[in-house]
Amino acid sequence: MNRRNFSVAFALSLGLPLVAGSSRAEEPKKAPPTKGPAPAPGPSAGLSADEIVTRVQAFYDKTATFKAGFKQRYYVQAYDKTKDSAGSVIFEKPGKMSWRYTSNGNRVVSDGNVIKIYEKENKQMYEQPLSKTQYPAALSFLTGQGKLKQNFKFSKQDSKQMKFESGYVLEGSPLQPTAAYDKVFFYVDAQTYQVRRVLILDAQGNRNRFDFVTSEANTKSPPGEFSFTPPPGTQVIRP
Questions:
Q1: Are the C-beta atoms of 199 and 39 separated by less than 8 Å?
Q2: Which CATH homologous superfamily contains domain 3-34+43-237?
């Protein structure tokens, strides 16, 4: 498998869009948003986008591990289809992550060096050095692999218009062109400055949304969480 195909497989395993371009900020009519966690009330209207980003970065800079349940909604414009998934995820610095999809048994695991994408239904696992993947900057700040201001230019959105009135909404435009997305919206808890939701948009009108629920910071990860051996009979594919 070549690097392009592997990157596609990695993106699809997370439901990530694959192309960049211009998009609109609103959710698709055919894909109404799932109800996410409500942040505590009281956002300050006086904070600028830069000040909010600084506070978000400060929270994750002091966070060694981040654990959450997640709900994912991926809308494919070309087919007018919506796919809902759910599961749990753990991020640990530096570069470690573990996604467990309860809906289909798939896994995405990185030990900080190698990333493995296991597709249960197809009995396949894709494996590649993390440094050679198109790791999404939209989520890399959670593993300590990226700084928000180094990856995005931010603008503050109207929280009422974005239907997140008790928190902040930031629109991030990538500073460097990427094949993964055009814009990323970060929905920020007004009290803790945790990112409660990430909405990723691409040029084809696809929308990929993650809601992080029941989150915990700086808790010990289970032993062996970031290592994974597929079941016997699994085809292992390397680029």
A1: no
A2: Lipoprotein localisation LolA/LolB/LppX (2.50.20.10)
